[in-house]
């Protein structure tokens, strides 16, 4: 079954925001919201890209960047890679 990637990201955004509740917002440090990290991890798993390939892929996915509230500068941010890999490990280990 083929899934539309934009629909997938929008659905996960809503689910993750609901699950995280008040903790879904921006972290104490950094620019990227907690819910965005989780949704990006879901996107990486669904689209089967490595963490290193994802910024390149997102450069060409303007609609998905909009859903994730990412601008071009944040895509290149190495903090995004570091935080996302830490979070994805935590999410995967808790499942």
Description of the structure:
This protein has 95 residues and is mainly α. It has one domain. It is 66% helix and 0% strand. It is built from six helices and no strands. The chain has helices spanning 5-20, 34-47, 54-59, 62-67, 72-75, 78-94. Helix 1 packs antiparallel against helix 2 (34-47) and helix 2 (34-47) packs across helix 6. The protein is globular and about 30 Å long. The model has no long low-confidence stretch (mean pLDDT 75).
Descriptors for this entry?
95 residues, mainly alpha, 0% strand, 6 helices
Per-chain topology:
Layout lengths: L4 H16 L13 H14 L6 H6 L2 H6 L4 H4 L2 H17 L1
Protein name: ISH9-type transposase
| Helix content estimate | 55-70%
| Total tally of structural domains | 1
Largest sheet: none
What is the number of strand segments? Answer: 0
Query: End-to-end span in angstroms?
Result: 24 Å
Which percent band covers the strand fraction? under 5%
Q: Classify the secondary structure makeup into a structural class.
A: mainly alpha
SSE pattern, N- to C-terminal: HHHHHH
List low-confidence stretches.
none
Shape type: globular
Q: What do the pLDDT scores average to? A: 75
Q: What is the CA-atom radius of gyration, in angstroms?
A: 12 Å
| Quaternary structure annotation | single chain
Counted by DSSP, the helix tally is: 6
Short account of what is shown:
66% of the residues lie in helices and 0% in strands. By secondary structure, it is mostly helical.
